[in-house]
Amino acid sequence: MIELEQLKQLVSDPSFQAEDRKLVAQYEERLSELLMKEKAIENPVIKEFYEYMQFQVEHCEQQLKTNRELTDRQRDALFAKIDICDNFTSLFNGKAKEELRQDIIKDLDYGRSQQN
Fold it and tell me: What are the tens digits of pLDDT across the range 79-116?
């Protein structure tokens, strides 16, 4: 990830603290974990569960759109189920990596502003 390399180079400057370099190391570790998880989708069992979770999201969204007789509690349960499924699927569909990238860009922009 180009932004991570840029941030790594930026914090290597002596004007940045060890805490900043530690943050970059944490980003590198998170990226490594995310890349492993994205690769895990190639496992047939994980892929099947991923597809099941996607189906559950679609099913819940359909219920929320079409069933006007749901109680508040039922609606809350469907939203919670969607959140849980989205949380799981985001590990494999690139959303988590994009969120990490946005965090890195934000810190990169902040670091550059502090350097000037």
Answer: 999 999 999 898 888 888 889 999 999 999 988 888 76
Cβ atoms of 54 and 89 within 8 Å: the answer is yes
The 10s digit of each residue's pLDDT in 50-64 is 999 999 999 999 999
Q: Whole-model pTM above 0.90?
A: no
**Which two tokens mark 106?**
């934000």
What DSSP line would sit under 12-67, residue for residue?
Answer: TSTTS-HHHHHHHHHHHHHHHHHHHHHHHTTSHHHHHHHHHHHHHHHHHHHHHHH-
Rounded to an integer, what distance in angstroms lies between the CA atom of residue 85 and that of residue 102? Answer: 22
Burial 21-40 (b: 16+ CB within 10 A, else e): eebbeebeebbeebeeeeee
